[in-house]
Amino acid sequence: MGGLTVLKSLRRELPEERFIYLGDTARLPYGTKSATTVRRYAEQAASQLVDRGVKALVIACNTASAFALQHLTEKFSPLPVYGVVQPGAEAAARVADNSGVLVLATESTINGGAYQRALTEADSALKIYARPCPLWVTLAEQGPLDAAVTRHLLEHYLRGFTGSPSTVLLGCTHFPVFKSAIQTITRSTIVDSADTTALSVKSSLAELELLGSDSATVEFYATDGVARFRQVGAHFLGEPIDEVALVDL
Question: Domain range spanning residue 27?
Fold first, then answer.
């Protein structure tokens, strides 16, 4: 579901591209699974998209990007494969000051250390704080909730980080739906990995001379719960989703 925030940003930056989106709704969440399992699931999902003739592949999930980017890059070479971790980390490092960066993500992403490594590579002197926020994924998928309930659960995981560090990196594709609330609570600059990924993909496709000029279209696929995907997905995408095809991985 969260990957739809990446699709939303990609469509904004690449309005003349055709997109195929696959949501692995039968096996989510990835954020609590082992690296081995995530790599296997990611390869199965990516194979479905590659078989449909895509010119580039975007891993619209932070956990899958952290655990499977290198594997998928090698597996499907020379097809361009993009993850969401590196663009977000590089953008956060550029805007961060001496107070450092707070990474908010799932348990697997935080425990795997992908963002911590990417941020250190971007700036070895950077102070890095990381906090897993496991309940936020479920919260995001509930759709619009009572503002007081949402704020309470956001504040619970942001305790101790009000006002510092001055940069917060959203390291889960579900979390952009809380961007405004997180900014209000932390009073920090928010870096959204969905937005930074879209800009990075656009730049790379231009360099590779792969930018499209078609009428913008999107095909949606899900591995389970098509009706729920349409309903909840509209919350993440910011517009109705009319047709979703069911696929079996």
Answer: 3-83+196-246
